Amino acid sequence: MLERAQALAEELVRLRRDIHTHPELSFQEHRTAALVAETLHEIGGFRLRTGVAKTGVVADLGDAEGPTIAIRADMDALPIVEASEAPYRSTNPGVMHACGHDAHTAMLLGAAHLLRERFAAEGLRGRVRLLFQPSEEAWDDEGKSGGLRMVEEGVMEGVDAVVALHVDSMLPCGKVAVLHGWTSAAVDDFFGTVIGTGGHGASPHDGTDPVFMLIPVLTAIYGIRARRVNPAEAAIVSVGVVRGGEATNVIPSAVELQGTLRSYSPAVREQLIAEVERAFAVSRGYGGDYRLRIERGYPAGWNDSRVAGWMEQVAGDFLGADAFDRSPAGLGAEDFAYMTQQTPGAMLFLGAAIGDGTPRGHHTPIFDIDERCLPVGAAILAETALRFLRGTVAL
C-alpha cells in the first residue's frame, strides 16, 4: 500500500499545491469543493453529494451491505497573510492554509485513488465514506462549525467507525502520534465587561473605577486554575483581550475582558464556566457590576482505543516501531470531536516538519510542511479502512 501511495506522490503534491495557492475561508470553500468533486469523478466509482454543510463533499464507495467506515478531511484556510516566497504561496490576499487542511484534502483524495483500486481488485463488502468537511476553523452566524453541520445533516448515519489525520509541522516527517483517550480540548470563550461609573481622573473618589475593579477580577480569573480546579485535571483559563479607556485623565465607565477556557472533562468544563461567572461577580464587592457572555465551542475530542489501535498498527507496519511520538495531548481544539461523539473514532497526528531548523508552527504566516508526508498519510488512511472492511480488525 505504501509503495502504491508513493507512486501517487507527484499527484498528491500537485493537488496540495493547487489548494494551497487558492485558499478559501470557512464556508467559502467553493473552488476547493469543486476540485474535490472533479477529482473524485475522474477516479470513478464514488457516489457524490455536494453542498453538504454548505460547501462540503461526501463520497461513498461500496455498499451498505456490510460495515461502514468514514474518513474525514477539512478544507478551510485561515485569515493570515502568508510570509513565503514558495511558488505555491497563496494568491488570495490575507488568506492562507496555515494549518495543513490543504494537505489533509490532498491525502484523502490520494486515499480515494488507493481505495478505488482495492475495491475493484478485491470485491470488498461494505462501504467507505469520504467526508470533505468545510469550516473546521470557524463558526457560522448560528455558531456552528462545519463538523457540527455535517453531523446535523446526517453524514454519520450508518457509520460504524470514523478516522482522520492531522499534520504536525513540529513533528519530524516519518513520525506519528496516536493517542488513546483525550486528543483535543473542549473550547469555550468568554466575553465580559466590568462596569463602573467612570469620572474625572482628578476625582476618583466621586465614582467607581472599573480599572481598579479589574485587578481583583483578573486575580480571581487566574486563580481558577490554581486554586479552584483539581490539579490532576486538565484546564486552562486565558485572557486574550483587555480593553478600556481612551484618555489619560478620564476614568472609563467600563473595561472589557475576553478569553478562552479549555478542558477535557465535561465536569471541569462546567466548573470553569461557573468559576468565571464568580470571578466577574467580585466587581460587585467594589461597588461595580458586570456583564458576561459565554460562547460554547467544540467539545473535547476522544480517541476510541480500538480505532486508535487500528491506526497505530497500520502506522507501525509502514514506519516501524520507532516512529511513534509518545508526547501527551495538548489543549488545542478540533471539531472532529463532533463526529467521534456519534461513533467510535480516532485521529492520528502525522509528522510533517520540514527540518530546516526553522519552526513553522500552525496558524503562523510561515507555516509549511514536508510534502513527503503526503503519500504516507494517504496510505495510512486507505489501509486502515481496508483492514476494517476485510475484517482483520475487531469492530
Annotate the secondary structure layout.
Layout: H1 2-7, H2 9-21, H3 30-43, E1 47-52, E2 56-62, E3 68-74, H4 101-122, E4 127-133, H5 146-152, E5 161-172, E6 176-178, E7 181-184, E8 186-195, E9 199-200, H6 210-228, E10 235-243, E11 250-251, E12 254-263, H7 266-281, E13 289-296, E14 301-303, H8 305-319, H9 337-340, E15 345-353, H10 373-390
Parallel strand pairs: 3-4, 3-5, 5-15
Antiparallel strand pairs: 1-2, 2-4, 6-15, 7-14, 8-12, 8-13, 9-11, 10-12
Helix pairs in contact: 2-4, 3-4, 4-10, 6-7, 8-10
Describe this protein with a few key phrases.
10 helices, Alpha-Beta Plaits, Aminopeptidase, four-stranded antiparallel sheet, 2 domains, elongated, 15 strands
What does this structure look like?
- With 395 residues, this protein is of the alpha+beta class.
- The protein has helices at 2-7, 9-21, 30-43, 101-122, 146-152, 210-228, 266-281, 305-319, 337-340, 373-390; strands at residues 47-52, 56-62, 68-74, 127-133, 161-172, 176-178, 181-184, 186-195, 199-200, 235-243, 250-251, 254-263, 289-296, 301-303, 345-353.
- It folds into 2 domains: 2-184 and 300-390, Zn peptidases (Aminopeptidase); 186-296, Alpha-Beta Plaits, CATH 3.30.70.
- The strands form 4 sheets. It has a 7-stranded mixed beta sheet, with helices on both faces.
- α2 (9-21) packs antiparallel against α4 (101-122), α3 runs parallel beside α4 and α6 packs antiparallel against α7 (266-281).
- The longest helix is centred in the N-terminal third of the chain and has 22 residues, at 101-122.
- The radius of gyration is 24 Å and the shape is elongated.
- The two termini are 22 Å apart.
